[in-house]
Amino acid sequence: MVKLRNVTKVYRTGAFGGGKLKAVEDVSLSMEQGKVVSVIGESGSGKSTIGKMILRLISITEGEILVNDKDISKLKGKSLKEYYRTVQGVFQDPFSTYNPVFKADRVFDIIRAEYFSDMKAKKWREKVESSLQSVGMVPEQVLNKYPHQLSGGQLQRLLIARALLMDVDVLIADEIISMLDASTRVDVLNLLIDLKDRGLSILFITHDLSLGYYISDYVVILYRGSIAEMGYTDKVFYNPIHPYTRMLLTSVPRLDQKWEESEEELMETQEIAADSLEDRCKYYDRCHFAAESCGKPELKKVEEGHYTTCPRR
Ligand SMILES: Nc1ncnc2c1ncn2[C@@H]1O[C@H](COP(=O)(O)OP(=O)(O)O)[C@@H](O)[C@H]1O
Ligand SMILES: [Mg+2]
Q1: Cβ–Cβ contacts within 10 Å for residue 40, how many?
Q2: Which residue among 24, 49, 223, 226 has the greatest number of ligand 1 atoms within 8 angstroms of its CB, and so is best to mutate?
Q3: Per-residue pLDDT tens for 153-171?
Q4: Which of 19, 149, 203, 208 has the greatest number of CB atoms lying within 10 Å of its CB?
Q5: Looking at the 3D structure of the chain, how many domains does it have?
Q6: Which residue's C-alpha comes closest to atom 24 of ligand 1?
Q7: What ligand 1 atom has the least distance to the C-alpha of 12?
């Protein structure tokens, strides 16, 4: 239902927009109904850029994004508004979405004004309440409160509830767990799994490998804007191929292993001029296995439902 085809995003940078930064390069992936796809990568790898393009918050430089077979870059006015009935996003920092001087449920009023202005007050109230219940909240406990009276987890759930006021099929969840403390993290994760079981497709954006493992059906490992490896979660986690994925996995602390015992593949950074990297794998300068023969990478099939740009082990 959501399909990215060779999507590239170049930002203009610098005071006069003279510089260019390729934040996402040639990314192709699909999301299916009732599945969670995680986009995992370190800070700056282009994860949010992918989410923002799907949400039409920024333009696509090259390639296309199809949602239910429609090219979303063409949507305007009314059709764009309709688009947001089915595709919604929730972002990292719940506190920044709320204005401290207004009650938290004001975020719902904005949706009402945009999409449900004809709805009677009583009916609207019922809709809000049922949406709050569907994210496991007791309406009386959260309505009419100011943001500072609610926890981070509650504010984040409120935003998910807001997204669910619409008939959403697709939820873009950009680092929504990161700011929460450990106890509420599990609640929000389990809520997402519950929503997925009810048929929602979720793009779960995270820098945290273990969160990606916990929640997703399919994972996409992003490195400097390009896909290094992707596939069904078990395939990528139990049979990681790309040296970057392997490095990420060995650097996750494991409870059953002491630090000294862990199999380390820490990479020595090689001194290579940036321009000579142009036709190389983006991981070349950090890679343990880098060789003269490493050219511009292409995604290749490792096994059914598992792809990587690097065949080395
Ligand atoms: N509006 C923008 N203008 C210029 N560069 C940007 C903009 N947004 C993001 N970038 C750059 O694009 C790259 C990818 O950013 P982002 O998608 O936010 O990564 P992530 O979410 O993985 O941390 C980074 O180098 C970032 O600095
Ligand atoms: Mg981000």
Answers
A1: 28
A2: 49
A3: 889 889 999 988 888 999 9
A4: 203
A5: 2
A6: 44
A7: 4
Q: How far is the CA of 203 from the centre of ligand 1 (A)?
A: 18
Is 211 in the same domain as 259? no
Identify the nearest ligand to the CA of 20 by its number: 1
Q: Which ligand is nearest to the CA of 14?
A: 1
State the residue range of the domain holding 220. 2-238
pTM value? 0.90
In a shared domain, residues 221 and 252 = no
Tokens 């380390």, residue located? 264
Q: Which residues line ligand 1 (CB under 6 A)?
A: 11, 13, 21, 23, 41, 43-49
